[in-house]
C-alpha cells in the first residue's frame, strides 16, 4: 500500500484545525495553574486511545449506547461553552475534586479528543483510508505533546499579561466554536 502524502497532509491539517492545540494553550495553562500539573505523556496517550477507539468503534459505540453523533457533539459543545465562560469572565465553574484527573478530563477529552475531533474522524473515514488518518492523528499528537511538555516555557514566554489577553481572546473563540458546534447539531 503506497502512502499518499497529499492526503496525509490534508488529513493532518484538518485535524490540526479541529484539535487547535495552539488555541487551547491558554485553557491548558489555566487548568495547570488550578491543578498544579499536567502530565503531557498521559494526556497524549489518552487522546490517542480515545481517537483510535472512536475511529474504529465510534459509530457502533454510540449506536450501542443509543446515542447519535449530534447528541455527542452537543454534550461536548456544552463542556467547551463552560470552559470558555471561565476564560472570558475569570470565574471558576468547574470544581475538580481530584486535580490529577485534569490531565484526562478536560484536557485529553474534550479539549484534544473532543466531539469536534471525533465527528471529524467519522467524516474523514468516508474519504480517506485508515492508515492516512492514523498518520494524521500521530502527527497532530506529536505537536500536542510538544506543546504540553513545554507549557511552562510557553507560559513564561507569554507572561501574566500575555496569558490574560490570550485567555480572553481564545475564550471568545472557544465560545464561538462551542456555539457553532451546538447550532450545527441542534439544527438551528
Brief overview:
With 188 residues, this protein is mostly helical. The chain has eight helices and no strands.
Q: Could you characterize what this model shows?
A:
The mean pLDDT is about 85. The protein contains eight helices and no strands. About 80% of the residues lie in helices and about 0% in strands. With about 190 residues, it is mainly α. The protein has one domain.
| Helix/strand order | HHHHHHHH
Rg from alpha-carbon coordinates:
16 Å
Number of DSSP helices? 8
By secondary-structure content and strand pairing, the structural class works out as mainly alpha
| Secondary structure tally: strands | 0
Distance between the termini: 43 Å
What would the average pLDDT be, to the nearest integer?
Answer: 85
Q: Hey, roughly how much beta strand do the residues contain?
A: under 5%
The domain tally reads 1
| Proportion in helices | over 70%
Contiguous runs where pLDDT drops below 50 for at least 5 residues: none
Q: Strand count, sense and closure of the main sheet?
A: none
Q: What overall form do the CA principal axes indicate?
A: globular
Fold topology:
Layout: H1 5-19, H2 21-35, H3 40-64, H4 69-89, H5 104-112, H6 115-125, H7 130-149, H8 151-186
Question: What are the key terms here?
Answer:
188 residues, mainly alpha, 8 helices, globular
Amino acid at each position: 500500500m503506497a502512502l499518499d502524502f497529499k492526503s496525509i497532509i490534508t488529513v493532518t491539517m484538518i485535524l490540526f484545525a479541529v484539535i487547535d492545540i495552539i488555541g487551547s494553550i491558554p485553557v491548558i495553562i489555566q487548568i495547570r495553574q488550578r491543578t498544579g500539573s499536567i502530565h503531557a505523556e498521559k494526556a497524549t496517550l489518552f487522546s490517542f486511545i480515545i481517537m483510535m477507539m472512536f475511529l474504529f468503534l465510534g459509530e457502533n459505540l454510540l449506536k450501542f449506547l443509543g446515542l447519535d453523533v449530534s447528541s455527542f457533539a452537543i454534550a461536548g459543545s456544552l463542556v467547551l461553552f463552560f470552559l470558555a465562560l471561565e476564560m472570558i469572565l475569570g470565574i471558576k465553574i468547574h470544581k475538580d475534586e481530584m486535580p490529577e484527573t485534569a490531565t484526562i478530563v478536560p484536557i485529553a477529552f474534550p479539549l484534544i479528543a473532543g466531539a469536534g475531533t471525533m465527528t471529524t474522524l467519522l467524516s474523514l473515514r468516508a474519504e480517506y483510508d485508515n492508515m492516512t488518518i492514523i498518520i494524521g492523528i500521530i502527527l497532530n499528537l506529536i505537536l500536542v505533546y510538544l506543546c504540553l511538555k513545554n507549557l511552562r516555557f510557553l507560559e513564561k514566554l507569554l507572561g501574566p499579561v500575555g496569558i490574560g489577553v490570550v485567555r480572553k481572546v481564545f475564550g471568545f473563540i472557544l465560545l464561538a466554536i462551542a456555539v457553532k458546534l451546538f447550532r450545527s447539531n441542534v439544527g438551528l
